[in-house]
Write a structure and sequence with these properties.
Layout (H helix, E strand, L loop, with lengths): L1 H8 L5 H12 L5 H15 L2 H14 L2 H26 L15 H4 L5 H15 L2 H13 L4 H30 L2
């Protein structure tokens, strides 16, 4: 199982991450599509080749082809949107926020899966990318659709753990390459 391999690859100092991987993925209460779509979109958002290599096959096995593509689409579109909207929020000149973005975002309207699932994946990716405006927007859509806070929190915990695991794996790989 890829999850066990991933946990085994973590050094002893990251024991908490090993335990958290087991709880947020291995013991998740999320339905399979929500879980594995969140895992895949977040793994892509971390930009960690090692993390993605370990988790993508299991995500692909647990998602329909449409959900697999939509989860990757969530990571892709939020990679763009999070930079754009985070920057608008950070700029002192608020005039930019009144300007039309003019960026294509068709996948958000027609993701090919249940809108709630796609919004959940976009929310989790926005957490990794640190865009408060996108987090607020996707959280509001999810809450309006009746999604419980616990479900939203579960996606946030997946994002947090995967981002931390990616950082450790990539740092250890860099250290090992430097010592070779």
């Amino acid at each position: 199982m890829a999850l066990d391999d991933l946990k085994a690859a973590l050094p002893d100092y990251a024991k908490d991450l090993k335990l958290n991987l087991g709880s947020v993925i291995g013991n998740s209460d999320l339905p399979a599509q929500q879980l594995w779509g969140t895992v895949l979109s977040c793994a892509m958002a971390t930009r960690s080749p090692g993390l993605l290599r370990e988790l993508e096959p299991e995500a692909k096995a647990n998602l329909s082809p449409e959900a697999y593509t939509a989860a990757k689409g969530a990571a892709a579109i939020m990679g763009m949107n999070n930079v754009y909207y985070r920057t608008l929020h950070l700029l002192s000149d608020k005039e930019y926020s009144t300007m039309r973005a003019g960026l294509r975002m068709n996948i958000i309207g027609t993701p090919g899966v249940e809108k709630v699932d796609f919004e959940l994946w976009c929310f989790a990716v926005s957490a990794i990318n640190g865009c408060g405006q996108c987090l607020d927007s996707h959280e509001a859509v999810l809450r309006k659709a009746g999604v419980e806070r616990e479900v939203i929190q579960a996606s946030l915990k997946i994002a947090a753990v995967l981002q931390a695991v990616a950082g450790v794996l990539d740092s250890e790989a860099a250290l090992a390459a430097g010592n070779a």
